[in-house]
Amino acid sequence: MFEMSIVRIGLIILIAASLGAFWYLDTVFYHWDGVLPQPEEMVVETVPESSKNNTIFKKPKEFVPTNEWQIIQEDQPIPPGLHVQIDLQTGEKKAKLMEGNLNNKSNSLAITDSHKPENFIDPNSMPDNSHKFRSYEQLKDDLKDLNMTIKSDMDVMDGLSRKFQEQMKVYEDSDKNLQNILTDLEYLLHQVDTAEVFAKNKGIQLIIIPCINSNSSYLKSQGALLLGSAASNNQKVQIASLKNDVIPLLLKHIDNEFTFSVQKNCIFALSSITRRFPLAQKQLIDNNGIQIFMSVFKSPISKFNTKLKLKVTQLLEDLTIEIEDAKLTFKEETNKQLNIEAAERVRQYDNLHLKDKLVENGWCNILGDEFIILSNQIPLDEENNAMVEASGKSLLALQNLCKVKLQGNKEFYQSFYKLETYYKQLLQNDVFFDELYQLTTELTNTYDPVLE
Question: 191 FRET partner, CA 20 to 30 A, in 101, 231, 318, 368?
């Protein structure tokens, strides 16, 4: 009897607990036993209206291009090959099909301004003349209505030339405006076409010669630098320089000027004018150029004088070697017309007698003395190594003439042994010195009477 009561009480508690659980679920989860709402409906109910656009991701509508301008929506992709405009004021972007070039696969971008004048011509509405050649003047006319200007290097150079002539009238030695003009001109004159136009427009008469003739060392130096840059590998400027008699002016400043930068740039200008130009070399010889070059080696030894000697030696080395090159070209040229031109060049070089004049003015002895000085300065720096190279090549080019002049000079012969040994040691650690070692070995074999 007691056991039955226990069982009944347990059942009653179980039933009560079940009813309590159902009541709790029904209270906490409203309509829990009904159909659950769809995810979209739940989002609408729980997300504030202001943030709908941040949470609903819709695929951007496809952009279908036409021949008319259409606004490109934010993040809307567009196919390739369209004209595209961006308004810098509003940021609005538009696109349309390319006219006359439907197969173009790359977008063309045009930046526009919303504040356009009434007579503004949209460049995209112009007839498509991209397949036609338009001259420089036509391009300038096309851009005139757009308030745009186009300048070539020639325009810039002409503008600088005018500014120079105006500035020269009020020149002071520290005038930064004039210095900037000359610096910009020097940059432009490295270009062959621009330098030719400069010479044609009387740039040598109007700018370079006034600079070289001025009382300012800066202007002298810069004028020579301009000329050297313009004449480098430029036959038309070389000819114009010859016609304007600048070679005597340059030689005068090498001889009389004591400012290093002026002398250095005058030698540079002479190098540019005379290389591979026998007529210019003749004018140099006729104006005592050889004697003036030799005087550089008689000046007191200094850091600047050493640099000038190197530049003179390198120039004279080039002038003597190009004579041999011209003869070799004449022998090997098979084309009839080119062979005739090579023969004429050889004839002009022969008429100069440059080698003979160099020897007459003591060039062989000067080179021999330089080798003695160099051999006594071991170890040598980069500049002295360059001097060994330039002097050595000159001695080889003049060997038939210089052998007689240097015969019996034991100190000269010994300088070759010293330098040969020096470069042989350096060669063991650095192949850079192989050429100098080979050069000094050849000089030893050429000039040492014992090895003949």
Answer: 318
